[in-house]
Amino acid sequence: MDVQSWTTLFVGLSFSLYLLIAWVCRVRDTRGFYVAGQGVPTIANGMATAADWMSAASFLSMAGLISTMGYAGGVYLMGWTGGYVLLALLLAPYLRKFGHFTVPDFIGDRYNSTTARVVALIAAIFISFVYVAGQMRGVGVVFSKFLGVGIERGVLIGMVIVFIYATLGGMKGITWTQVAQYWVLITAFLIPTIAISIKLTGQPLPQVGMGSPLVGEGVHLLDKLDEIHREFGFNSYTEPFTGSKWNRLNVLCTTLALMVGTAGLPHVIVRFYTVKTVRAARWSAFWALFFIALLYLTAPATAAFARYYMFDSLQGKSEAELPGWYHKWNDIGMVLWLDDGDGRVCYSGDDRNELFRGGNLSTAELGKIASEHQVWLLTDHDQGADGRGVLRSKGLSGPDRDIIVLATPEMAELADWIIALVAAGGLAAALSTASGLLLVISSSVAHDFYYRVINPQATEAQRLLVGRAVIGLAVVIAGLFGIYPPGFVGEVVAFAFGLAAASFFPAIVLGIFSTRVGAVPATLGMVIGLVFTGGYIIGNRFFDMPAWCFGINATGIGTVGMLINFAVTLGLTPLCKSPDEKTRRLIESIREPEGAGPAVQIETTPGH
Question: For 3-305+413-488, CATH number?
Answer without folding.
Answer: 1.10.4160
